[in-house]
Amino acid sequence: MTIAIGLFCTDGLVIATDSAITVATHDGATTEMKAPKIFHLMDDVIFAYSGNFSMAERIRRRLSSFLPLWLEESATADDLGDRICAEFETMFGKYVTDPMRGIDCTIMLGVIFKGSPELILFSGGFRPQFYSKDYFYVAHGSGKQFADPFMSFLQNTCDISTLTVKHARLLSYWIIEHVIETNTGGVRGPVQLHYFLKREDGMGYDHISAINAEEYENKIWEINERINEVVFGQDREKPVEGGDLPRRLPRRRR
Description:
This protein has about 250 residues and is of the alpha+beta class. The chain has one domain: Glutamine Phosphoribosylpyrophosphate, subunit 1, domain 1. It has helices spanning about 55-75, 75-95, 145-155, 165-180, 215-230, and strands spanning about 5-10, 10-15, 20-25, 30-35, 40, 45-50, 105-115, 115-120, 130, 135-140, 190-200, 205-210. Strands 10-1-2-11-12 form a 5-stranded antiparallel sheet, covered by helices on one side. Strands 5-6-7-8-9 form a 5-stranded antiparallel sheet. A two-stranded antiparallel sheet has the order 3-4. Strand 5 (about 40) and strand 6 (about 45-50) form a beta hairpin. The longest helix has 21 residues, at about 55-75. The N and C termini lie far apart (about 40 Å).
């Protein structure tokens, strides 16, 4: 199993994965290892994957060679996505046409294209899927079945229209940790997290891969404590402090 997620934000984007890869041998035996699944491909590109790590590594090396030129030559992000798709089809045409040797790999790219962030997914058939503030969340890998319901809970709780990188970093970490804790096996920490954050002067984006696990764990613990107080009816009301998650207005009672 594996899990990778992407979140499109008002001031950038966040990509996070677990750290487990599974290596299978010809006799059916498997070995699980921890390995990087997110890469800073170049100044304006973050590369992440789920699925077959060997295929992903071939794609990563190929993109490292071609992307700098394509980023310059492409007129639009759609054009860039089509160029990448065409290259994938050329690389793996013999596998795609043979169902028994299909491509078990999904690629996610975070790109700063002509000054704007783009979150692009290449899955079945490698057709590009674009995400934006209206379609802000994507999960892939076999842990998707655990990540999506939890994200639905968070989306129902938070005002996602105001999702910033600060908030998305916490949500991403929380989602991956949730999958690690609830899956049946094959998803392991530590959480890997990269993001693009718009600079304060508005001139470009910074790529950052640092992660403060202790800070996120403490915030998640605090949130769980607040939920516990509300559910079990504590006498003392504790106000929710701002800054942890985007607040959503309470629903009207029917």
